[in-house]
Amino acid sequence: MAKKITERTKDYSQWYLDIVREAQLASHSPVRGCMVIKPNGFALWENMQRQLDDMFKETGHQNAYFPLFIPKSFLSKEAQHVEGFAKECAVVTHSRLINSEDGVIVDPESKLEEELIVRPTSETIIWDTYRDWVQSYRDLPILLNQWANVVRWEMRTRLFLRTMEFLWQEGHTAHATEQEARDETVRMLEVYRSFAEDYMAMPVHTGLKSESERFAGAVETYCIEAMMQDGKALQAGTSHFLGQNFAKAFDVRFQDKDGKEKYVWATSWGVSTRLIGGLIMTHSDDNGLVLPPRLAPTQVVIVPIWRNDEEQSRVLEYGNAIYNELKDAGIRVKFDDRDQYKPGWKFSQHEVEGTPLRIAVGPRDVTNNKVELARRDTLSKEIVDREGLDRYIPELLETVQSDLYRAAQKRTANQTRSADTYEEFKNLLDREGGFIYAHWDGTVETEEKIKNETRATIRTLPLKPEKNPGKCMVTGKESPYPVLFARSY
RNA sequence: CGGGAUGUAGCGCAGUCCGGUAGCGCGCCUCGUUCGGGACGAGGAGGUCGCAGGUUCAAAUCCUGUCAUCCCGACCA
Question: Are residues A239 and A306 in the same domain?
Answer without folding.
Answer: no
